[in-house]
Amino acid sequence: MEQHDIIPVVSLLAVLMPLLSFVLCMFFVPKSISGKVAVSSIAVSFIASCFVFFKIWNAGNIHIQHHWFTLGQTSWDVGLLLNNLSALMILLVSGIAFLVHIYSLAYMKGDENIDRYWGYLSLFCSSMLGLVIADNLLLIYIFWELVGFSSYLLIGFWRTRDAAVQANKKAFIMNRLGDLGFLLALMILYSQFGTLDIEKLFGDGGLFHLSQFTSGEWIAPLGHISYVWLLVCGFGFVFGALAKSAQFPLHTWLPDAMEGPTAVSSLIHAATMVAAGVFLLVRVSPIFDSTVLITIAVIGIFTAFMASTIALVQNDIKRILAYSTISQLGFMMLAIGIGNNGAAIFHLATHAFFKCLLFLCAGSVIHEMHYAKNKLDADCDHQDIRNMGGLRKMMPLTFVTMVIAALALCGIPLTSGYLSKDAILISSFEWATTRSFAAKLIPYLAMLTSWLTTFYIARLIFKVFYGELRIQGDKTERLIHEAPRFMLMPQLFLAVCSAFFLFSVNPLSYENTWLLKVFPGSVALERIHSYHTVIPALLNLFAVLIIYFAYIQYARKEKAMFRENTWLYNFALNGWYFDEFYHQAIVRPVTYVSKFSFSIDRKVIDGLVDIVGKSGVLLSSIAGWLDRKLIDGFVNLAGRAAAGLGNFFRSFQSGRIQYYLAVMIFVVLTFFVLRYFSPAI
Amino acid sequence: MNLLSILTFLPLIAGIIILVAPSGWQKQFKYITLAVTLVQIAISGYIYFHFDNSLRGVDLINSYQFKEQISWIRLDLGSMGKLQIDYFLGIDGLSVPFLLLTSIIMMVATISSWEIKTNLKGYFALFLLLDTAIIGVFCALDFFLFYIFYELMLLPLYFLIGMWGGVRREYAAIKFFLYTLAGSVFMLLIMVGLYFSVTDPETGNHTFNMVHMMNPANYSGDSIFGSLAQQTLLGIPARLLGFIILFIAFAIKVPIVPLHTWLPDAHVEAPTPVSIILAGILLKVGGYGILRICYGIFPDAAIHTSWWLGLIGVVSIVYGALNALAQKDLKRLIAYSSVSHMGFVLLGTASLTAEGAAGSVMQMISHGFLSAMLFFLVGIVYNRVHDREIANFRGLANIMPQYTAFVMIAFFASLGLPGFSAFIAEAFSLIGAFNSETVNGAIPRWMAIAGSVGILLSAAYFLWTLQRMFFGQTRLMGGEEWRTKLNDLTMREKLALAPLALLALILGVFPSLAFDKINGSVLELIHHVTGK
């Protein structure tokens, strides 16, 4: 019982240490020791995570809650849900974050805003760790946005670079778009069940299982709505995950996100944050019905294929790896779509190691190239693989570790990637056996994608490490050397983690993996024995041929087999023109609509107001005119009449006696004359 | 004296002191004002902590707190009965957060008033008069008294914009004045109509008591607004018409599309402190009025019109956000973002759910802090170089890092980043709006979905602005001259900004600080309107 009290505290510690480091780095500690603060806090976090992992793994869940606030009659809680999934994720995230922190000590050395870097990185770690142990969907949403925010900060870390600040804006807005789907799904669940607690919803005997589906209706404890909303809810979660995990059609932010420091790309945009989408879908997988699942599978395999074709022709070392990440995440989505969550999580874990390693190695290469470029004062792109070459002699350890990671990515035996990729591929073949013809295409496309993967990563390795270095100078050979110790150590460690033995004692069969025993596929598939030998053999046979082919093409450069500047080449080089399409189809129309709505505001609404105002002024001036001319006219007329009359009568009161006498005589005379002529009077 | 009365009239007294003080004391006026606002914060803080959350208020006259009721005007009108107007103050969960909000925003606005250089006596006297009027609005429970305070807000604002404003200040001031006056003139008619319909159950006189107006039993059967008589005016049921007219009066303040165009002009032309007060508090008077008066007095009409209110909310959210996206002037952009954010208030209110209504009150408080912060930030750059065209600045982060940090906090908090109050507010407004169709059928689900587009657009316009103005290499239209003028934040500015940022953060992490206070009243209001 005592242990049950301490585990949540320790896991909370794992989340709060990086948060503390964020606050310290941003506001309190001086620049010089901010790195030490961040690294030690993540180290504590990692140790805490190890403890939690070994206590929780296969040993039962812990779910504790604390009252947060009351709204209406509903009590909203914050809490921790520690089960196998969160235990694995917390270990994975803090472990890789720890390595990347160490790597960053050397990689980011001397940056003038280093304290901000450590602060942002700590904020990311805290939010990501919070995300994986949160016990309800609102809390997950909160951390989900916070990891997006810290990713925004880190992509735009070099904020004087225009490309970087364009990229972080794009990343945040595309993620926001996905968040709307997530939010919608939350609203649907809340209105149906009155809670967002994961265990209450999806746990054993959870509320979700009380749902009844009859005649197109979804009847839940609180609501009674059309079945369509169940689909909408599922698609909402999927949409959110597509943005976070950079899947078609919301994938275009990830390649641009490579503007951030490479260590960041490694941690956030390869190993952890982008996997949050996969994590979320696994968390809520009970609500997916077959329509949603098949959609996830199709999107996954399409993204995997598309991204790998793009990776074939890219020249920026980080962009190749970014598209590779998108492609691999597509495989995880495929696994979820075919109902094999275990394989998805397994691939998430192995991919985290080898993709992180690929990026760290790329970072070392870039670091050295950048150094050489500055020394030589050369004007070239230090991330362009066309400028690299022959680095294996100068950076042997980086070469070896990167090759190991590349082999894992290809899924060559003895690596961890072999196990997890086989898990996905074989189960997709098994899944397809009972399905329609169109569905049968999916595993074949996956296989093709796997071969494309082999080709692009082989191209990268051969171009970077074989042949001759293409930026030339007097002492180039001596300028470039192995990366600093702090960068090498994480690489070596990750290289070890990319081997099979971390996951399974049997290097050739994924079925003995400890990880998969804990996460069984949610859909039981019939094991088809022949697949388990034929598919890996076929896959690897061709993979070896492809590697050899790439070797001839790029390392020995015997003959150029591909023509560049073909239509297909440009199509892939420009990432299938998604960016242009979005710009034309979405960004421009929205800008246009916003201008239009502003002109309505100015012309129509304000116009009306002005008309009302002007007509008021007009009315009042008419009234004024009337007042002056008509009413005042009458008044003046009356006045003048009175004055005239007065004047007229005044003339009688002249004061002259003679005048009065004359008038009197005139009146008397008149009287008598009238009297004389008219006796009637 | 009652605490609420002190809170209300303290600024007025200080304003009078400033008026009669010799002009030689000019330099001290801002300190007097600051002291008054600090005392107000202390008093409203005391009220906040001594507020009993279990008393629900709204239509229950006995559960209002800090009440003060004094008979004010008693006139025997012969056959028309006795005119009964009370000086009646009291608060419930709907008003208590606004008292604290007002006090804090007034304090920030005072600090921002350091920039005012001309005619200080007039400025601070009007400023304090405005303070009294706003607090009065939030405390008044007698409709007549409410109306007086409500109209009293207009006068100082008109002069504050018209005399201390920008280039087109007179146009803006008159536009603002006419817009709001148009609303309140008709409000007067409804108020009188209500007066003749309602009798005080104790004295039998007609009364302006708002709480009595909420109880259908107090209406005499044949009166114009009596629910039994079903009278019509111009072919519209009288109670519906009354609701609509009151709603329009308050909606102009909120503001809603299409009655919002006074807001960008008033904001752009107003001096920074007045913009802060306008966005921070005055818009909330509109929302508060809708909740307390429209929904309180005409609950039956509220149910019938909720679909339209929800629609207006959604239109305001999306339309305001789109307009913000098109702006070239930073202050105007923020003004339109206010229109968009206040749309959530209407949407949440219209949902008639506890989540939605509490979310909308939360949104008002949160927007109060954040819009004050945003306008203060715009004022900082405008004060330094007298320009705020977005295109004229670039890479400000390099020369004003602390300023940029606060801008980022304000922008991200406003766009609803979790951890800040706006997220809780907007999320629950939307959740309530979505839930409404299941719970009471007030508004359809698509409105919540359409409203959530506003969250996306707000990210777009804020981040675009960040990218254009603050990041990249520094390039200023004014060249070196601007560069020397654009100093980073002073201590005074930081002291004004930091509390706002912290409050937004604290409310985002511990929303119970607000929800605990408002929850009871919100539930009572929902019960009052929907009967559930």
UniProtKB/TrEMBL annotation, chain B:
Residues 140-441 form the NADH:quinone oxidoreductase/Mrp antiporter transmembrane domain. It comes from Hufsiella arboris. It comes from the Bacteria. It is a multi-pass membrane protein. It is found in: Endomembrane system; Membrane. GO terms for biological process: ATP synthesis coupled electron transport; electron transport coupled proton transport. This is NADH-quinone oxidoreductase subunit M. GO terms for cellular component: endomembrane system; membrane. Belongs to the complex I subunit 4 family.
